[in-house]
């Protein structure tokens, strides 16, 4: 593929920050494909968003038709 991009189950990202002290970060993300066995089914996923400061907030995701 062009620009060195290849199909993979994980995608690394690398960046530097300047300052005192300078920092170097590496992050690896996965991007699974969400596929419903039956497109007419309704799915609800409930969890929490964890914030660095403050309280956790409940969140729900709805998919389906």
UniProtKB/TrEMBL annotation:
Q: Name one Pfam family in it.
A: Phage_cap_E
What is this protein's name? Phage major head protein
